[in-house]
Amino acid sequence: MTYIGDVGALARKDLLLELRAKETLPSMLLFVISALTIFHFALPAGTSDVAARGLLWSALVFTALLGLTRAFVAEREQGMFDALILTPCDRSAIWLAKSIAVLAFLAAAEVVALPAFAAFFHGLNGRTVAAVALADLGIVAVGTLFGAMAVAGRARELLLPLLFLPAAIPIVVGGVGGYLWFLVLYDAIFAVFAWGTFEYVVAEAA
Amino acid sequence: MKLPALTTVAFGAAVALIFFYAPTDADQGFSQRIFYFHVPIALTSYVCFGWGAWKALRYLRTRDERADLESYVAVHQGVVFGALTLVTGSIWARASWGVWWSWSENQLVLFLVLFLFYCAYFMLRYSVDAGPARMNMSAVYALFGVVLIPVSFLAIRLSQRFIHPVVFDSHAPSNMTGAQWLSFLVSLAAMLLLFATLYNVELAGKRIDAHLRELRELLGRRLDGGPQRAQAPALPAPERGPS
User: Fold this and answer.
1) Whether B155 and A201 lie within 8 Å, measured CB to CB
2) What's the farthest any 2 CA atoms get from each other in chain A?
3) Is B3 within 8 Å of chain A by CB?
4) Integer Cα distance of A32 and A35 in angstroms
5) What ipTM, to 2 d.p.?
6) Minimal Cα–Cα distance from A17 to chain B, Å?
């Protein structure tokens, strides 16, 4: 099979699993709406757009974290990692496929979250939407790499936020400030990094 | 043991220069002298992280288990120096501006981010069982760190624009005099030597630890079963840890 074919098959597997089990996406949707509701009560009346936009970014990062925590659980619990490693495909294809699947969940959650944010708070502009789209790429690129690491450990769900959040700080900065070029830079650097190093993370998965 | 002696001498010289030779700052007075500790510690911390990443790369290339341990020790020292950077920076901020923490100090904020990032390195390392998987992950994470340093620095610079419109630039060592440079450089050399000494000590300790564990396992196996021999043969090569 070609590289693209491998990626397609693996991503399709994840999407099919989610379509049948319906575990991750509904929880992400509920989480992001609950978070926005909490933020409404956390913000004093008459807060500026900038403050609300900052909260949107924290909601998005934490929602992504929720999806990323679940991303490799099936592989881990069903012992599928061993099977994946035995498959005659490039290991980076596993990363790419998983990133595509998580990106799909995240995008689906945001299709609901962004209009909800616009309705709850002050509306959105095109720049924020573009920044969210670009930030998603960086979030899933880094998050999938760290997700595969965290799931190998004993702490798992506890570990991923610790690994991921410090690395996600630049994304929040780029997003809140609307620096699209910076988000593109972040995506490019860390997508290449994760693509190149993922094989080491799963190569000896216990 | 030349290195510890050299470190002691360099440290003594640095302290003497900082307190008795370097001129007192016109604006900040005596408290500015913490600069000669704070900045060298911060630079040493970068060196530690860089060295840890270099060893991580070496590990991924050569699969040499010693490189994994060296990478770990370097990152560990980096976190210690990073914590010291945060503490000295905080003291300096208190002395200069009357606050314990200032988000407008780019370097200090960067160290907070790095400190959080590298603390998670230990969580990762101790959450995974010892073996090749752990070595691989630690190496990838340590490498990720050095890529994250410039990206985070850029991000923090950018964030100043929308969080704090006023940018402080009070500590730029651009117009330092010769006496200041001398004190600074001797202090930097002392810190780097201190890192080298601590690195060696910790590495030796960890290696003895690992070796002792292997010997214990070996001894346990001999006592448990196996043919009793009047004279034990020479110890076989140390076994690799369980994967």
Assistant:
1) no
2) 58
3) no
4) 5
5) 0.89
6) 27
